[in-house]
Amino acid sequence: MADVQVVDKPRVAMSMLDPLRSKILSVLATPGSATTVATTLGISRQKANYHLRALESAELITLVEERARRGLTERVMVATADAYVLSPELLGDVGADPNRTDRLSSRYLVAIGARLVREVAALARGAESQNKKLATLAIDTEIKFANAADQQRFTEELAAAITEIAARYHQEQAPKGRWHRLIVAAHPVPKHKK
Fold first, then answer.
1. 13 contacts 86 by C-beta, under 8 angstroms
2. 95 and 57 in a common domain
3. Same structural domain for residues 110 and 150?
4. Which residue blocks in 130-182 are alpha helix, DSSP H?
5. SS3 assignment, position 117
6. CATH code of 54's domain
């Protein structure tokens, strides 16, 4: 089971966006059967089976084992990931694109996030298909500024530090070099997420 799976196929996204199927995926974070799902969600076994088949067809759940039970074969399934992210790629040409957004707006940060999901998901799939790991870097921290002036000084110092480090390591003419995208973002932490 993957910890995070990026969904980029419309058929798969539509399947998982059904509220009941989303609940079934949550229940199947641990292996379970139609009976388990039906009991947990208070639905009929037949209804659970119907949705399990749809989720399996969309490759959002996978078979763990089959076992004989009361003259029938019980199929034990598990979700393919702990969590899912819908790729902005699903929206095609109307998906968020930093090139079509004001660089000084909060929407630009959202568009960069969308591009990050699209690009990293595609690169990760490519690496996995070759049994390789994708080298990435993520730094995530929270800072509480005393005031707006401190926030501005921090922004200026961070920009200067990144510019200096990037200039030191950037090799425009390196024949075997590989381009990397560096994103630094900051936004207020939502009050309900503290």
1. yes
2. no
3. yes
4. 148-169
5. helix
6. 1.10.10.10
Helix (H) or strand (E) holding 116: helix 106-129
Q: Which residue shows structure tokens 């980029």?
A: 8
Would you write out the chain's pLDDT as a tens digit for each of its 194 residues?
789 999 999 999 999 999 999 999 999 999 999 999 999 999 999 999 999 999 999 999 999 999 988 888 899 999 999 999 999 999 999 999 999 999 999 999 999 999 999 999 999 999 999 999 999 999 999 999 999 999 999 999 999 999 999 999 999 999 999 999 999 999 999 987 65
**Domain end residue (candidates: 84, 99, 134):** 84
Of the residues 19, 49, 84, the one at which a domain ends = 84
- DSSP, collapsed to helix, strand or coil, labels residue 181 as coil
Number of domains the chain is built from: 2
Q: Which amino acid is at 17?
A: L
Residues 79 and 96 in one domain: no
User: Is 62 in contact with 80 (CB distance < 8 Å)?
Assistant: yes
Range of the domain at 69: 2-84
pLDDT, position 193: 64
The total of other beta-carbon atoms located within 10 Å of residue 16's CB is: 19
Is 160 in contact with 154 (CB distance < 8 Å)?
A: no
